[in-house]
Amino acid sequence: MKKGMIKATDAFERIVHWSLAISCIVLMISGLGMMFHSLNFLAVPVGGLKNLKLIHNFTGLFFIASLFFAVLMWWREAGVFEFPEDAEWIKVAGGYLWHVDSVPEVGKYNPGQKMFFLAVAIFGAAMAVSGLMMWFPLSFGAGLVRFMYFLHALGFVVIFAFFFVHLYLGTIGSPGSLPAMTSGWVTRAWLMKQHPKWLKETEHKGRLVVYGKEPAPREGQGHHA
Amino acid sequence: MKGTDFVKLIDTTRCTACRGCQVACKQWNEMPGLRTRNRGSYQNPPDLEWNTWTLVRFQEHENGDGVLQWLFRKDGCMHCTDAGCVKVCPSGALFYTEFGTVGIDRTKCIGCKECLFACPFEVPKYDRATDKVFKCDLCYTRLREGLLPACVKSCPTGALTFGAVDTMLKTAYARVEDLKQDGHPDANVYGDKFVGGTHVLYVLGEKPEIYDSLPQKPAVPLTVIAWKDFLKPLSLLAAGGVILGSFLHYIIHGPKSPDENGDRDAT
Ligand code: SF4
User: Fold this and answer.
1) Which member of B232, B253, B257 has the closest CB to residue A97?
2) How many structural domains is chain A composed of?
3) Three-state DSSP class for B198?
4) Which distant-in-sequence residues (6+ apart) come within 8 Å of B157 by Cβ?
5) B123: Cβ below 6 Å to ligand 1?
């Protein structure tokens, strides 16, 4: 690793992220296999739709646990909008869509990321509740269960679309972002571009962990859980 | 494969509640009879069950003139043209047959129970032991061999008849006319006016609302329509839009890369 790399996330954060990501992907694939007859073949490798259903249901439990930790860990940094800077950021769409001379500096997570977090948190919770009730539908009233099917489909629409936004912006759409969730070490240049305020504040507090430098007084500033 | 649609006509005014159809159904489909309790009614079991696909409902009804009537109605799957159960079934276990009826291939059923909540008539029933759903398939195996459904075959009074849809509709409406002449002013045909028309038609002697457990305006639930006809395609559209949008963003605006000299003095 190069000298001067900065630690953006700690191991726990990354484990939670990938637990959520992997369970979400398994749920989406298995869900698609049940949602579209033309995708029923996705069940072939696991020996049929019934097994796919079981995989979907139990992965759901894993997803719920991951979501719980994700919300606990991120809601403070990613779940609350800060004014006025977040509003100003939104006005210029964070400089993602048209040229902006200087993008308003926001906290560790920008409003776009906050929206993504909130979408995952809110619709993820909706998926959890509706999914559990769909698992045991005979224990609930028919009207309620019908609404849960609707909610599950609605949550899928939102999460499926947001998934690709996240995939793009986490990789080729924003080069330098991916390492934040792989090794956890990012470049200063990337932080300057994406999270300048966080960089300055953390540095100011003397909490920045820089590779090859004297260890900072306290390790890891990813979460306060 | 699309052939002629077939219809079973249930003329409730001719039914004597002998329950021959109920027995014939169990026999042909090899469904066990389970012990039930005497509830003071001949209606037994009290409702459709996984092992009881058709059932004669017994109902005591006092009409406006204080006359007590004993109404019999053979209940079971209506074989909808626009069937909620088929719409939601994820595995294709529930399917439209070449006769226009709704068949069920239990080897494909995964026990998700979605059809239980999509059927406007509460017909499909779930069996915990096999983790499968059961319902009348209008004797699909018999129809394919050119035989009548077992219930129709067994009916001694002519209350159950079976035939091509046009013929049966004509028969039904002719019968209603006769009944009206004959002192049943409320006689009506039930089944052809909703869910695309059912492949089970009733000739009812009284208004539909008089009968127990008979929905007056059966329809595929709105939530099911929103789910399957709106959200399902929307999920693909939205994701496709995002993918296309990302691609356009990448080639038009370009990725958001760190500035070349992105050290602490930049910006
Ligand atoms: S009555 Fe219910 S089970 Fe029968 S075809 Fe219609 S929706 Fe399906």
Assistant:
1) B253
2) 1
3) strand
4) B14, B15, B16, B18
5) yes
Chain B residues with beta carbon closer than 8 angstroms to that of A204: none
Write the DSSP assignment of A59-109 as a string of letters: HHHHHHHHHHHHHHHHHHHHSS--TTHHHHHHHTGGGSSS--SSPPP--SS
Q: Which residue type does B105 have?
A: D
Same domain, B144 and B179: yes
Host domain of residue B102: 6-210
Say if B1 falls within a structural domain: no
Q: Which two tokens stand for residue A16?
A: 């939670």
Contact B151, B25 (CB under 8 A): yes
Domain count, chain B: 2
Instruction: List the structure tokens of A190.
Output: 């990337």
Q: Which CATH number fits the domain that encloses residue A35?
A: 1.20.950.20
* ipTM for the whole complex: 0.92
pLDDT values of chain B reduced to their tens digit, one per residue, 267 residues: 457 999 999 999 999 999 999 999 999 999 999 999 999 999 999 999 999 999 999 999 998 889 999 999 999 999 999 999 999 999 999 999 999 999 999 999 999 999 999 999 999 999 999 999 999 999 999 999 999 999 999 999 999 999 999 999 999 999 999 999 999 999 999 999 999 999 999 999 999 999 999 999 999 999 999 999 999 999 999 999 999 999 999 999 889 888 765 444 433
* B251 and chain A in contact, CB less than 8 A: no
The verdict on B247 and B203 lying in the same domain is no
Domain that holds residue A189: 6-204
